[in-house]
Amino acid sequence: xxxxxxxxxxxxxxxxxxxxxxxxxxxxxxxxxxxxxxxxxxxxxxxxxxxxxxxxxxxxxxxxxxxxxxxxxxxxxxxxxxxxxxxxxxxxxxxxxxxxxxxxxxxxxxxxxxxxxxxxxxxxxxxxxxxxxxxxxxxxxxxxxxxxxxxxxxxxxxxxxxxxxxxxxxxxxxxxxxxxxxxxxxxxxxxxxxxxxxxxxxxxxxxxxxxxxxxxxxxxxxxxxxxxxxxxxxxxxxxxxxxxxxxxxxxxxxxxxxxxxxxxxxxxxxxxxxxx
Length: 276
Fold this sequence. Notes:
By secondary structure, this protein is an alpha+beta fold. The protein is built from seven helices and eleven strands. It has helices at 2-5, 88-93, 101-105, 147-152, 176-189, 198-204, 251-258; strands at residues 9-14, 16-21, 32-37, 43-53, 59-65, 67-69, 80-82, 84-85, 117-120, 211-213, 220-222. The strands form four sheets. Strands 1, 4, 5 and 8 form a four-stranded antiparallel beta sheet that branches. Strands 2-3-9 form a three-stranded antiparallel beta sheet, with no helix packed on it. The chain starts with a helix and ends in an 18-residue tail after the last helix.
């Protein structure tokens, strides 16, 4: 561009320019466009133009905008910005073609005037072909949270709905007299009364309850029951027996024990099937 600086300087007049905010620490977010302007006044940028002819013979005019370091008010948005000319600097830029390079470089400095303003615009501007009327209209954006802030504990977790908060624990020290009275009530509830099953009372006391067999189905019932738990047959008051009673030997077995030997022609009786 050095050959253009001496004789083809120009001023590019615009309403404003766009810059996209790129937050590298945000996750899953698109770039946010910002519109920078001078309010109602037009913005004049320092530029260079050129004219050339292509292979077909068509003439084309091109223009380039000169950029510089961002001003202190815009360095949060980007590290570069266009060279904005105001007042006498416009005439100096468009002055004599013989103007020396050192004097022109003094004009290429960041603009930091009080009339410099900016606001966020719609993200539809991320498409190059978007030219609607709201392309420069201000929009409201929610503050973005960084992923590092979440792990640092500065981002609050969303509140859950539909669940009641757990009740607070009572940390008041208990009264010893009240605890003793409550324990007596609990012990009284476990004592056996007139309607309580004696077998259950014996089991609560840690003893092994005695059992009595049913004459109908031979089911072993707890002592104190009036009817069988299995078949409902009335228990006729047989003597209680221990959990491991010794079975009564059959007549055939009694003869073998007494030494009489086997009886010819007499078969050992088959065991009676028990009802399940």
